[in-house]
Amino acid sequence: MKLKNFTRFLFFAFVILFSAQSCVKQGPMGLTGANGKDGAAGADANETCKMCHNPTKVDIIAEQFTLSKHEYGEASFSEAGTVGCDPCHTQEGFKYVVKNNVSTVFTLNATTGKYVNPYATDASAAYGPLTCGTCHSSIHNSYTSSDLPSLTTVAAVPMTMWGGAKTIDLKADGGKSNLCAKCHQPRPFTNALTGNVLDYAALASNPAGIVYDGNPAGKTNIIKPSYRTHTHYGTVSAVYAGMGGVEFPGTLGYASSQHPTVASCENCHMGPKGADSDMVGRAGGHSFSAVGNFSGCNMTGCHTTPISASSTTYWTNPRNEIKGLLATLATKLSENGVEIMNRNGDSATNLWYGITTNNYDGYLNVYDPITNPTAQTYNASSFKYVGTPPTTWSADQLAYNATLPTLTITNAQMGAIINFQMCLREYSLGIHNYAYTKALLTNSIAKL
Ligand code: HEC
Ligand code: HEC
Ligand code: HEC
Ligand code: HEC
Ligand code: HEC
Q1: Is there a contact between 270 and 65 (Cβ–Cβ < 8 Å)?
Q2: Which candidate, 296, 270, 314, places its Cα nearest to that of 430?
Q3: 424 within a domain of the structure (yes/no)
Q4: For 204-237, how does the pLDDT look when each residue is reduced to its tens digit (9 = 90+)?
Q5: Minimum-distance ligand to the CA of 427?
Q6: Which domain does 404 fall in, by range?
Q7: How far is the CA of 76 from the centre of ligand 5 (A)?
Q8: Is 72 left (phi over 0), alpha (psi -120 to 50) or beta?
Q9: Ligand 1: residues whose CB is within 6 Å?
Q10: Residues 164-199: pLDDT tens digits?
């Protein structure tokens, strides 16, 4: 029976039952009550399901989604249960921080005297692959058209890397980019002495200051360089929003290009409208990939002279320029002829393979027998692995480490390292925000 008919059936059944009962015991007539509200028309269950579950909607989008790293990536599996990672790496973790509006403001622990980062999910919600329900958290709430594409959040994003002191609010296209920015933002660098977020403004204003003095036991070191002294992968939204770099004063100002004002992530990464018809090969639609998809550039109201992979002014020239600046900055970031930035020529493990000629990956060229065995500078944490457990390094590894040159790091170098990581790891060689990327790299080069 269709739902509508079933509702009618119930109504008549009720009328009959009521009349039957009123025959049993007859008292005096009461006052006439107010009319009840009309019941809502029952939905036809099958029709509601078909609105979404049909070959041109959910079915085809689920197909496109298999080409998205949200789906085929493995981080949601490997990081499940790690509450600090799961706001961005798991579905339930993401929904938890959105629902509870979890703060990004570092708090002082009175016992240790150090600051701690509160941005984490609860252990009971630290799992779940990134699926449709991550971004569309209303699916199957009401089984009506309002369940899709309604997004989990489009609210402004207080940035975790700044301990909430700066907020990303990308207003174009109804703020939909804020959904992406909530996850595609960098994690904080912390100051080893205070536990608080690293003060980028202090790095920029005092380039001669010392971040690491070369002595592992030094009492004023605010960061001890290691292979993984890095800006966590999601730098795109910070660069896009024109914040997140170490802004050394220099010849170029830190203005943004037009993109963050006029375009949304969706415009370029899901085709112009995010509709299922916006696929171009393996990119666009719900693949979320922008590689080789220029339809966003050429959508109505944007570039009127069509842009393609062979366009010079708006594609190859700016990208080559940024690529050149990255190479120059990497060369300047060296001590005694040894580069600080790490190279990795393996396309399977280097997510930024091919972006620079030397295949930098944004990590540091610091020795680690397990994660970076061919690196060329001294690992200052090696004392941790001598004598008392955990003794994880062999005598040969310790001896090799001892032959390597020690790094000392100034504020200027640290700022330049961060800017290099920001601009390499935004992947697009400046397309996201050409003006901001160019300023960060140019002014960093001048500072070294
Ligand atoms: C507003 C759109 C929408 C409506 C209406 C809708 N669904 Fe879904 N449904 C979805 C989406 C999106 C998914 C997730 C698909 C995926 O993961 O591939 C889904 C998944 C499912 C699944 C797979 C299990 C799961 O939860 O992932 C079942 C079963 C299902 N729907 C049944 C129904 C039935 C029965 C109805 C009608 C009573 C219905 N749906 C109405 C959008 C809808
Ligand atoms: C819940 C957090 C979250 C949200 C929301 C989110 N992403 Fe992602 N995204 C990720 C994570 C995590 C990965 C990497 C997954 C992995 O490697 O396992 C990723 C991967 C990607 C990739 C692939 C990167 C590559 O190296 O190939 C693209 C492109 C992307 N996201 C774009 C977007 C866009 C555009 C939006 C907004 C419409 C968005 N993401 C929303 C967390 C998120
Ligand atoms: C603020 C959000 C956020 C937090 C918190 C976060 N990540 Fe990520 N992470 C991302 C995004 C976004 C990507 C994908 C970026 C891209 O490809 O552009 C990513 C990528 C990764 C990758 C690379 C996956 C691949 O494709 O190979 C690993 C590994 C990873 N994260 C581990 C972690 C770990 C471990 C933690 C916790 C210590 C963590 N992440 C915390 C946002 C986050
Ligand atoms: C103006 C167009 C444009 C906008 C807007 C845009 N992107 Fe991109 N994005 C690109 C291009 C171009 C690339 C590089 C594609 C290539 O390598 O060929 C890229 C690359 C990426 C990548 C690496 C994976 C991939 O698809 O190559 C991620 C992740 C990403 N963007 C996320 C975002 C997020 C998040 C936003 C919004 C904050 C955003 N992008 C906004 C054009 C754009
Ligand atoms: C990373 C975030 C993200 C994930 C994951 C995601 N979507 Fe979307 N989806 C979006 C955004 C953003 C839009 C565009 C919304 C708008 O323009 O209002 C959208 C639009 C849609 C639309 C409306 C556009 C159309 O073509 O009709 C549907 C339906 C939809 N998504 C279904 C799904 C399904 C099904 C899945 C899982 C297979 C899924 N989405 C996974 C972000 C996501």
Answers
A1: no
A2: 314
A3: yes
A4: 999 999 999 999 889 999 999 999 999 998 899 9
A5: 4
A6: 158-263+302-447
A7: 19
A8: alpha
A9: 45, 48-49, 51-53, 58, 62, 131-132, 139-140, 143, 147-148
A10: 999 999 999 999 999 999 999 999 999 999 999 999
Region 231-245: mean pLDDT is 95
Q: What average pLDDT does the chain have?
A: 90
Residue 128 and residue 89: Cα distance in Å, rounded?
8
Domain count, the chain: 1
- How far apart are the C-alpha atoms of 305 and 311, rounded to whole Å? 10
Q: Is 433 in the pocket of ligand 5 (CB under 6 A)?
A: no
Task: Count Cα neighbours of 132 within 13 Å in the Cβ-side half-sphere.
Answer: 18
Tally of residues, the chain: 448
- CA angle, residues 15, 19, 25, in degrees to nearest 5: 150
Check if 182 has its Cβ closer than 6 Å to any atom of ligand 2: yes
Ligand 2 contact, 414 CB (< 6 A): no
Task: Please tell me the distance from the alpha carbon of residue 84 to that of residue 360, in angstroms, as a whole number.
Answer: 27
The two tokens of residue 27 are: 């008292």
User: Distance between CA atoms of 228 and 363, rounded to whole angstroms?
Assistant: 6
| Domain annotation covers residue 437 | yes
Does the beta carbon of 290 sit less than 6 angstroms from any atom of ligand 4?
yes
Burial of 381 (0-12, 13-18, 19+ CB in 10 A): middle
pTM: 0.92
In a domain, 168, yes or no: yes
Q: Is the dihedral of CA 77, 80, 86, 90 positive or negative?
A: positive
Residue 24 resides in a domain? no
